[in-house]
Write a structure and sequence with these properties.
- This protein is α/β, with parallel strands linked by helices and about 450 residues long.
- The protein has 4 domains: about 120 residues, 3-Layer(aba) Sandwich (Rossmann fold), CATH 3.40.50.2300; about 170 residues, Rossmann fold (3-Layer(aba) Sandwich); about 80 residues, Helicase, Ruva Protein, domain 3 (Orthogonal Bundle); about 50 residues, no CATH class.
- It contains 19 helices and 14 strands.
- The strands form 4 sheets. Strands 2-1-3-4-5 form a 5-stranded parallel sheet, sandwiched between helices. Strands 7-8-11-6-12 form a 5-stranded parallel sheet.
- Helix 4 links the parallel strand 4 and strand 5.
- Keywords: ATP-binding, DNA-binding, Nucleotide-binding, Phosphoprotein, Transcription, Transcription regulation.
């Protein structure tokens, strides 16, 4: 059974607000009322309406100022403006800015209901059918995350490329998969690859495929992931780590909508939606020549930035309860959850490893507990174990690179030419490595303050 559409009604005239609210409720809409723009913005975060219906002339914040704030907080949420002083120029200006409809009071009842129905029908979030299956794996009550998910739902309806940014472990692949499930490609494959985890030739072969005999060991023809994802979505994780030579080939594939496998002379048409992700600063990578600007703009049609877990602390208890239920079902069904003190400790932790780290902590707690309720001491132990845990391959490599660069700069006293020679790199590559690790050669010259 469909849930009634939810309208946020805003008017500083209390009697008109009540009258219009009753009219909308008689039509079957759920109505939340606000007597000012400020109150409306507060209720926007709490109630997530399907549509905003606002008077134009209000003290402090008028209808257009409210509309602009709504667009910032929930892009694409339809707004209808009512005014007793309507004019053609006002209406044209409002609709050009994105207001769905601009109606003059006294508004005709049928005209109002028609405008509301049209807005709900034509907006991605319109039908209030409660179908959240596409985002079921993303557990949140954070207003920040809800805004990102609203944008994800909207962008899913088109085929534009999406770049998901955010720190490692923040859930970029989960969001990419959710966009795929909300799209028209949902019944086709979702294929993911980590561009930073494979050597260049193997990555090229995995993406584009190869012909028999294309290189040593290519004993048979291999279909690449572009072909495997045909009709669906290809998720390029850690796109910032893709080698420059492969970036050129990827750009050509996206422009021409066809690929050529290694060792083949035949091009193959492709139909895939590209979602990419990175934790790197691609603006900085472009300035340093590590990432192609033309590819960046091809991939970054829409950018969705996921926050670190510490910026959505209200989600930690919610996630922890969800994760402990999953882990208990797999390993120890008698485990029921965390003690209040344990949940408080989880909520107050910094989570440098983000959601991925929280998953590990919960798994450790479930594995080690012998009681139905996990105590604070066990959470504290798991957090300490995580801090001392073996780093990922990429983290270990970055740590080694930085330590090595510091060592050769100390040996050469900041002389980049000598340091590059020791490292077996040309000066340009060596400077790029220094930039990636925020190292300044001058800091290693005699007499310089080597704080790092």
């Amino acid at each position: 059974m469909k849930q009634a559409a939810h309208v946020l009604l805003v008017d500083d005239d209390v009697s008109l607000l009540k009258l219009l609210g009753m009219r909308l409720e008689s039509r079957g809409y759920r109505v939340t009322t606000a007597e000012s723009g400020r109150e409306a913005l507060d209720k926007l975060e709490q109630t997530r309406p399907d549509l905003v219906l606002s008077d134009l002339r209000m003290d402090e914040m008028d209808g257009m100022a409210l509309f602009q704030q709504v667009q910032k907080r929930m892009p694409g949420l339809p707004v209808i403006i009512l005014t007793a002083h309507g004019s053609i120029p006002d209406a044209v200006s409002a609709t050009r800015q994105g207001v769905f409809s601009f109606l003059t009071k006294p508004v005709d009842r049928d005209e109002l209901f028609s405008a509301i129905d049209d807005a709900l029908r034509q907006t991605a979030n319109a039908s209030a059918d409660g179908d959240d299956a596409w985002r079921a794996e993303i557990i949140t009550r954070s207003p920040h995350m809800e805004r990102i998910l609203e944008q994800a739902r909207m962008v899913a309806g088109s085929d534009v490329s999406v770049l998901v940014t955010g720190p490692s472990g923040s859930g970029k692949e989960l969001l990419a998969n959710a966009i795929h499930r909300a799209s028209s490609r949902v019944h086709k494959p979702f294929v993911a690859i980590n561009c930073g985890a494979l050597p260049e030739q193997l990555l090229e072969s995995e993406l584009f495929g190869h012909a028999k005999g294309a290189f040593t060991g290519a004993i048979s023809q291999h279909e690449g992931l572009f072909q495997a994802a045909d009709g669906g979505t290809l998720f390029l994780d850690e796109i910032g780590d893709m080698p420059l030579t492969l970036q050129v080939k990827l750009l050509r594939a996206l422009q021409e909508r066809q690929i050529r496998p290694l060792g083949s002379t035949t091009s193959i048409p492709i139909d895939v939606r590209i979602i990419s992700a990175t934790h790197r600063d691609l603006d900085k990578a472009m300035r340093e020549g590590d990432f192609r600007e033309d590819l960046f703009y091809r991939l970054n049609v829409v950018n969705l930035r996921l926050p670190p877990l510490k910026e959505r602390a209200e989600d930690v208890p919610l996630l922890a309860k969800h994760l402990v239920t999953q882990a208990a079902a797999r390993h120890k069904p008698f485990v029921k959850g965390f003690s209040p003190e344990a949940l408080n400790l989880l909520a107050s932790s910094a989570w440098p490893g983000n959601v991925r780290q929280l998953v590990n902590v919960v798994e450790q707690c479930v594995a080690l507990t012998s009681a139905p309720i996990i105590p604070e001491a066990l959470v504290s132990q798991a957090l300490m174990a995580e801090e001392n845990a073996l780093p990922s391959f990429n983290e270990a490599r970055a740590g080694f690179e930085r330590s090595y660069l510091i060592k050769v700069l100390k040996i050469t006293e900041g002389n980049v030419t000598q340091a590059a020679r020791i490292a077996g790199r040309n000066r340009t590559d060596f400077y790029k490595l220094l930039g990636r690790h925020d190292l300044e050669p001058g800091a290693f010259k005699p007499g310089a303050d080597q704080a790092g």
